[in-house]
Amino acid sequence: MNAADALQPTLPSDIRWTQWATRALMVLALGVGLMWALVALGQRPGLAWRQLLIEGDVARNSLATLRANALPQIKGNFLSTDLRNVRAAFEGVPWVRRAEVRRVWPGQLRVRLQEHRAVAFWDGRGDWGEPPLERALLNSHAEVFHANLGEVEDDGLPQFAGPNGSEAQVLALWQALSGLAGRDERVAITRLELSGRGSWRATWASGATVDLGRGSADELLARYRAFLPHALAVARRFNTQVQSADLRHPDGYALRLVGIGTQQTPAKAANKPIPKRKP
User: Which residues, at least 6 apart from 21, have a Cβ–Cβ distance to it below 8 Å?
Assistant: First the structure.
């Protein structure tokens, strides 16, 4: 303790408590006053919302529908409205993937929307033959979302199925396999399934099913790339189409052709595993 401190008298404890309480009451009074000032300011008519501007993607929802869903959530004025609630209201509208909400002085609420772009129907399931756990849609970001399926029934979307969490994997493989089909619409993959045990199956627009088996994406692509032109050449040779194929054989694949029975000589050749061609 220095000399200056020694010269200062020590205040009694009751006076010190009184000073502390006085300061606390002053801080509390200032806080309450500030709160009331903000409330009064928030109720001023000049800060009321004057315009709701909606920009971005509005192909799937009309402006009237969007306003009807969001306006009940816009409570307060320019200063007091909780924009998180407004954003959640817009993102709760079907087909809306993301909403960006901001204030623009003096009284405009500006909303920019991004809609889902559906690329496939999605069946979340555990294995082939099991009922779908959910019937939904998959967007271009491999995200599952729910909307009125009747609005996309005529869009020609493929159907994907797989365990929940495998959406991105299924979409990526479908895109890679589809790139090998060229312009032949018969072999366009309209359904791609991943079983709970990791096996893949593709269905063509012609109705043919192709069991791809298991493996990495590169292994599946290499297998399918070697199979596709050879199988189509065999089908043309017999003037028919592929009915089904099994690519799980290590040294080739099994092929079944439409209209060729197992008792006929061509069918025997067609249904045996066909050796892979050397590059």
Answer: none
Domain coordinates of the chain in residue numbers? 47-115, 118-275
Beta bridge partners of 242: 257
DSSP 207: S
Domain 47-115, second-level architecture: Roll (3.10)
**Ramachandran bin of 129, using left for φ above 0, alpha for ψ from -120 to 50, beta for the remaining angles:** left
d(CA 110, CA 248): 55
Q: Calculate the CA dihedral of residues 191, 194, 199, 202 and round it to 10 degrees.
A: 10
* pLDDT recorded at residue 41: 53
Instruction: Pull the structure tokens for residue 152.
Output: 């996309």
71 vs 14: CA distance, rounded Å = 56
Supply φ then ψ for residue 36, to 5 degrees: -65, -35
Q: Per-residue pLDDT tens for 224-233?
A: 999 999 999 9
- Residues (pLDDT < 50) of the chain are 37, 263-270, 279
Are 245 and 210 spatial neighbours (Cβ–Cβ below 8 Å)?
Answer: yes
pLDDT at position 266 is: 45
* pLDDT of res. 277: 54
Query: How many angstroms separate the Cα of 10 from the Cα of each of 4, 7, 14, 17, 21?
Result: 12, 9, 12, 13, 18
Instruction: Indicate the fold that domain 118-275 takes in CATH.
Output: Rossmann fold (3.40.50)
